[in-house]
Amino acid sequence: xxxxxxxxxxxxxxxxxxxxxxxxxxxxxxxxxxxxxxxxxxxxxxxxxxxxxxxxxxxxxxxxxxxxxxxxxxxxxxxxxxxxxxxxxxxxxxxxxxxxxxxxxxxxxxxxxxxxxxxxxxxxxxxxxxxxxxxxxxxxxxxxxxxxxxxxxxxxxxxxxxxxxxxxxxxxxxxxxxxxxxxxxxxxxxxxxxxxxxxxxxxxx
Length: 205
Ligand code: SF4
Ligand code: SF4
What we know:
Elements (H helix, E strand, L loop, with lengths): L2 H25 L30 E3 L9 H5 L5 E7 L6 E9 L18 E3 L14 E3 L5 E2 L13 H15 L24 H6 L1
Antiparallel strand pairs: 1-4, 2-3, 3-5, 3-6
Bound molecules: iron/sulfur cluster (2 copies).
């Protein structure tokens, strides 16, 4: 190919490729978008559209925490730090610290699976950004609190019962099939299986 022919061929290729590229760009003006404007231009919060088993940022209902330390032991990367003290006279177990480092957390769910009451559970919250790493450690205990002692029968405390129901639903839905799994059906006020296991807490003292 001569130099002149090559020159004009280059011009033709340049014009052609510009139009090809612009055609792809222009086609997006006609297409229905597959993306949504996040976070403020959708009819419902994304968090409210997530399934119940979504593993978002962890939360702890201290009202139903037995202080058994199963979650702390299950975490493979030591995100959870719990401090419990047992009064040798009254035998009351007190939780004085319950921290979760959500920076380290990898949302594996291993801590929530063995929890007998569903006290520690994943939420649908995923927006955890903050300005300091210190603020990413969630400290659930502000004042020392007595550990929950499961009743022999249904929970009778009107304040605790709904929290325990929520927890037991969570336990049932996360329980491995063949063990406590019952299809997610929660029996109102049912005593949590193995909830009176204080071995872990005792072992730590
Ligand atoms: S979800 Fe996994 S990494 Fe996060 S605290 Fe629980 S066990 Fe640890
Ligand atoms: S009751 Fe649940 S949240 Fe409380 S220490 Fe035991 S496993 Fe952790």
